[in-house]
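Worked example (supplementary).
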Amino acid sequence: VSTPAQSETATVKRSKVEIFKEQSNFIRYPLNEDILTDAPNISEAATQLIKFHGSYQQYNREERGSRSYSFMIRTKNPCGKVSNQLYLTMDDLADQFGIGTLRLTTRQTFQLHGVLKKDLKTVMGTIIRNMGSTLGACGDLNRNVLAPAAPLARKDYLFAQQTAENIAALLAPQSGFYYDIWVDGEKILTSEPPEVVQARNDNSHGTNFPDSPEPIYGTQFLPRKFKIAVTVPTDNSVDILTNDIGVVVVTDDDGEPQGFNIYVGGGMGRTHRLETTFPRLAEPIGYVPKEDILYAVKAIVVTQRENGRRDDRKYSRLKYLISSWGIEKFRSVVEQYYGKKFEPFRALPEWEFKSYLGWHEQGDGKLFYGLHVDNGRIGGNMKKTLREVIEKYNLNVRITPNQNIILTDVRAAWKRPITTTLAQAGLLQPRFVDPLNITAMACPAFPLCPLAITEAERGIPNILKRIRDVFDKVGLKYSESVVVRITGCPNGCARPYMAELGLVGDGPNSYQIWLGGTP
Amino acid sequence: MTTSFGGPATTSAPLKDTKLQIPSFHCFSSASASALSRNALSLPSSTRSFSLIRAVSTPAQSETATVKRSKVEIFKEQSNFIRYPLNEDMLTDAPNIGEAATQLIKFHGSYQQYNREERGSRSYSFMIRTKNPCGKVSNQLYLTMDDLADQFGIGTLRLTTRQTFQLHGVLKKDLKTVMATIIRNMGSTLGACGDLNRNVLAPAAPLVRKDYLFAQQTAENIAALLAPQSGFYYDIWVDGEKFLTSEPPEVVQARNDNSHGTNFPDSPEPIYGTQFLPRKFKIAVTVPTDNSVDILTNDIGVVVVMDDDGEPQGFNIYVGGGMGRTHRLETTFPRLAEPLGYVPKEDILYAVKAIVVTQRENGRRDDRKYSRLKYLISSWGIEKFRGVVEQYYGKKFEPFRALPEWEFKSYLGWHEQGDGKFFYGLHVDNGRIGGKMKKTLREVIEKYNLNARITPNQNIILTDVRAAWKRPITTTLAQAGLLQPRFVDPLNITAMACPAFPLCPLAITEAERGIPNILKRIRAVFDKVGLKYSESVVVRITGCPNGCARPYMAELGLVGDGPNSYQIWLGGNHKQTSLARSFMDRVKLLDLEKVLEPLFYYWKQKRQSKESFGDFTNRMGFEKLKEYIEKWEGPVVAPSRHNLKLFADKETYEAMDELAKLQNKNAHQLAMEVIRNYVATNQNGKGE
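After joint prediction of all chains, the assembly is encoded as:
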């Protein structure tokens, strides 16, 4: 197929961030120099670059006088997988360098708040050396790849999770900037599956920048953040339709994976009072055989890389490109990079939300335990107790897309002491959590997020209580519930635009009310 | 193999083995004696009155000018019925009150305390304890106590083993406000401390059953009977305003009866007089099998006896239980109550009064360490004691009725009341209600307009819950850490600790604040020696020997005897019917595992079927246990088996099976032999 013509004119308009990326020597300068100064903060250009490394510079917006800067660090955990070693490390780091809490995010990652600049290298180095990474957790590149967190020993789930990990590896930056800055160039990567290496290096259809340290991303990386989720039919615990790319395993009658349905163009961010910005549901682009999934994903990413707007970041997401072109034109351009035609979308059963809370069989003789954590905030006695249990029984964990946590590989004999110990720390079986809380989500908002307009995480407990009171008043039973999501700004991090009742901050103590999402 | 020594170690507190002697005859029939005694007229007289017709002789009162009395007796005598100088000290600007007043305020339900962890000048505060017979707390009173804890206390409430609230940290300037608020909201603190009858216990369960209702009513009647009458409490805290509910007529009648010389005629305190009792006095009422009240640890234990139709007929009475002691003073000891006899139900108040009066007249007043009823009974023996009580009672006690085995009932979790409603027993660690749990509990009690009960194990029961409220209440409370019993470590369910540091003046070391970590260490030892999670022992910890959390009834009692140091007591049981004995002195907290690990291992290995830890320690004898601890080298490590996870294809397996048969083995055995040979021939890299 022909490669799309690249028009290059000297007068193309680009946003400031594009300049920063171009001049950064692959996301290094001036971050590598700013990190060494005694100043508590880093420069504007460096604040953009550090996002690619998995960190945001923040300051406490409730303090007056000079700003007290700190950094939020976000991990990369495809499928939400966290090894025992990494969990214990994050728990320690939160106490030693953070604000004493860990947060579980809707992207199945940890967030660590309150790290000072002088401690950044220590914290990053420690995470990397303990089977963790923050590379690409933020910034204009592929973010954490979601998959159902449930550790079910089933072909479809295992395949979805493996595929998520492969996609994450495919789209991981290659130029080594991350390791240069945080562990002085030490390489701490696990080996990649050969099919990932092959797919990344393939340039049969003009996808790659030949001989570049970043064959897929180039110097400019992507125009904006990029989110991918993989799941299996019926299991919409990952909120598949809110992702730039949604990948759904299609199995045959024997449960053997055959290929994938692909959705494109989902995205939640918007700007208040700018009607040309909007949340969007992903739509079907087609079906691909299983051996082609990495090539198809790469083709979609490259299409966005080449055609996504770089002049105004508010319109840079893939959803705006697809809205502008229409799905047909988009599909045909992607097919040029893919080198094949997409097959027709396969029929799928109805989606369900699965919380995976409570005790379940893994299918291999062991159990897993899904724990509800309000707003994903792990702190205080709950944090201490959770760490004790994970350490004592040597458990691995998973983070769910609903800000909750799953303990995996639990032997039957451990079930009762674990249930009891955690219950005493407030980590209860789902029967003991208000149904409103089970599905509610909120973003961190005040005091650290620079985008926040009003409260979300800190305000949601009282808001849910008031909603429950209204339920009581109008005669709705306790077992009834609605999906409530609250964000302090329109950026949509807790996906309020998919909620039955979404509250989106639009002024001090003021919200837009969004209705009509389906659970 | 160790040599066993004959017989268990001698106890530090030998108990007399008294057999109950059945009287050979009665002078009067019970009906006529009762009628005659009850209806006798009292002649006007300026001295103690005597009826013209005497059923029995009244003990002679010897009065000598040289009798020795403790300082507190002087304070009581000069106090104008527990008023002066407390009423004056309350008015000064000083943050504390004088020594005499600190003794008097106890009768009002308060102790002066100071934070013993602060240096420099003492910061005084007062602990206030409520009076709640049967542990009953009205909705109104619960909400009031919750508010008072926040406004005037340290922000927490404590539930006690006497089924009362304790409120800590009240300043002197706020005392009157707090006391008055409690009184005006259906509460009282009168007699919660001091030398008089304390809170009367009864099972907290709000069961709609004749026996339980009767036990609870009887507890309330006894509490009313023995409540002070001279009005000092209301004079000081609500300026004389009277806030009493009407009393049952049988209580008034029993209190006023002076047929057998029990009362001080024309005194503002007909039962207590100016001197009140020599020491604290504790009474518990219960029904057969239900030993949730720890019946044998009370001065008087009262057990409802019913006929075959479940109708209450009368009561068995125990006397002489008590937990307090002093370290290294072997003449002080904890003691189990023993049977005194049976009384018909209409006579219970008279019998209780007679016992109280016997103690009032004969309990030691020279040395408060020996003032409790248990020492009087130990000194006299039960026969003499019974004889004296009967003189005040005006009848002979009937023989003790046979009772079934005692059980401990926790009443935790959801239960039917029997009237279509439910009650919910909540475990509260050490009875300490604070923080989010306090806030949420208050919300639930207020929202659903619930009444509450305090249990003798420092827990709380929510009563009169409609079925439709069960789930929201369960969920809301679970989120605040108030969990169904299935979610509480079994060790915590039965564990108790007293408040100890920083406010209790008697504390030698930690109890409440230390117990969470101690229980965790005990659980870790259980894990280490192979005891299952569902197994448990009754652990109780006090910071001093006074025994407020009843460590002397525990299977494992820790009694503070020095900084971070405890005596270990063993031998109590879960049913609360066996007294523990001192096993080791001065065990440092950091050395706890050195004692517990061998004990629990020994228990696991040598116990008889379902034998509890307490029973096991009694059976084995303390000398043998001590020897075992001295020789302890750690648990015997069982040889472990490892799985190589060997899988073979069908052909290989069948070939192995054929070859194995030739050697009279199975395929697995042959495979293991091949592997062992391979390892042996290739060990240390030496291949053949």
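Two points are worth noting when inspecting this output. The first helix of chain A runs from residue 16 to 22. The two ends of chain A are 42 Å apart (CA to CA).
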